[in-house]
Design brief:
Layout lengths: L5 H25 L4 H13 L13 H24 L4 H7 L3 H12 L6 H18 L8 H24 L7 H8 L4 H11 L2 H9 L3 H28 L2 H4 L6 H13 L5 H27 L4
Helix pairs in contact: 1-4, 1-11, 1-13, 2-3, 2-9, 2-11, 3-7, 4-13, 5-7, 6-14, 8-11
Amino acid sequence: MPAMRPLDLTLALLVIVVWGVNFAVIKVGVADVPPLLLGVMRFSLAAFPALLFFSPPKVPLRWYVAYGLTISVGQFSFLFTAIHMGMPSGLASLVLQSQAFFTMVLAAFWLQEKWHSHQLGGLLLAGVGLALIGSTHGMSMPLTGFILTMAAAFMWACGNIVTRTVGRYGPMSQMAFVVWASVVPPLPFLVLSYFLEGPEAIASALQHMHAASVLSVAYLAWAATLLGYGLWTYLLSRYPANRVAPFSMLVPVVGLLTGWIVFGESLQLVHFMGGGLLMAGLLLNLFGAPIMARLGWNK
């Protein structure tokens, strides 16, 4: 696999920081705004007025819709609801990284990307780490929140596959694609919010929004969505999905630290053990190839 350029590596690290802080911001947002309504606000602000400054890339409409329904509506309807139901923001940032494993599996079947022995080893380590974290439900997180976060991770992985497929249409502005794909989520989110949260909850939230909620919506729209997913889409368009996706497992380092500083969320020993295995899996996935190649084990 081609080595990642230093500039692209820097951009990947920037996305990690932006997305790591994102979880604490979500917790602030869902404190006053119903989670599905928060999705309406996030993607409405991400789309307007930004789309006035970008021309839509020449990609079939179905891929805009697929991206919007998977990585946007699917992922964040589950994630926002999970955090609203009591999933700690730091642990949510950790559990969501199971998307890397879902992405590798989907990429193998959908894109015919081959796995290597070091990737399988990394997947096994990280999977055990995730299982350890999941075993703490009831003590530090609700089981429903854990399941919803896993569902969000699967939808993110589906969006990653859409992104890789879109990259086959040739060079394009990834930021423009993300902006125009953000036109898709507001209506589905609004329909879900109306029927699941109710018009009274929507009206009450709009009438009593605090400054913190407004700022959280702005961060989610402009930093986490436009900047974060714009750069993420750019990276996935240049490198195989199984090279880019594991970087997201560094997001919990920022997410857990932010949750601890802002909300006082504490970790148990099992969380450190599980997180350590996740990180070990990432390191093996990213840097195991040259080591195993020297040993003649990477087949």
